[in-house]
Amino acid sequence: MRRATHVIRKSDWASSEALGTVTLSFEDRFRRRVRLMDDAGEPFLLDLVQAQRFEDGDGLVLDGGGILLVKAALEDVLDVSGLDTQHSARLAWHIGNRHTPVEVLPSGQLRIQYDHVLMHMLEGLGGAMQRLNAPFVPEPGAYDTPAKTPAEGEAHDHTHHHSHAHTPHG
User: Fold this and answer.
1) Which is nearest to 64 in space by CA: 12, 5, 10?
2) In a domain? residue 165
3) Within a domain: residue 43?
4) Which end of the chain is less crowded, N or C, counting CB atoms within 10 A of the terminal residue's CB?
């Protein structure tokens, strides 16, 4: 059986080089070791050193040669709109407060996986909802991307000094 042993980020390869494709849901794009089927129905073993998230456009490198292009599957999602920027930020805060993955669309809308409880909460907060089937590619978590090292051009002092004057509010 073919084995995919590492991931190439979409910025590091040309998808035109792909041997084939594999379409996966958001949940299925965070794996370490699992038997999968590519879009042609051919099985392969995903066999990574550690679990990692792979995104739409990334490549899974096969140990016998070739790369499978990862495609985000169509999923049951909600696109959420606020009345204005401040209202949208408030809706985003409530989504984040529930530790819910969110995709920020180029339009400024927020996309979440469909959840009837969240939908009713956001409607109650004045959000407009559109339910559809679309790829779901949420923002990576703050700790999902490796930190840059000083050798990568980030050589500056990250020390921060704060002084706090504690005065009564009134």
Assistant:
1) 5
2) no
3) yes
4) C
CA–CA distances in Å: residue 79 to residues 11, 102, 135? 27, 10, 11
What CATH code is carried by the domain that includes residue 110?
A: 3.30.70.790
Boundary (domain end) residue, out of 24, 56, 72: 72
Give the residue numbers spanning the domain of 101: 74-135
- Closest alpha carbon to 60 in 137, 3, 16, 11: 3
User: Which residues have C-beta within 8 Å of that of residue 95, sequence separation ≥ 6?
Assistant: 80, 102, 110, 112, 118, 122
Please tell me the number of Cα atoms within 13 Å of 95 on its side-chain side: 29
This prediction's pTM: 0.76
Q: Which two tokens stand for residue 153?
A: 């051009």
Confirm if 36 and 22 have CB atoms less than 8 A apart.
Answer: yes
What per-residue confidence (pLDDT) applies to 140? Answer: 84
Residues with Cβ within 8 Å of residue 169, at least 6 apart in sequence: none
Task: Evaluate whether 101 touches 118 at the Cβ level (below 8 Å).
Answer: no
| CA 125 to each of CA 89, 91, 100, 102, 103: distance values in angstroms, whole numbers, following the listed order | 12, 7, 17, 17, 19
Residue 143: its pLDDT value, please?
A: 63
How many domains, in total, are found in the chain?
A: 2
What pLDDT was estimated at residue 157?
A: 41
Q: Rounded CA gap, 87 and 38, in Å?
A: 41
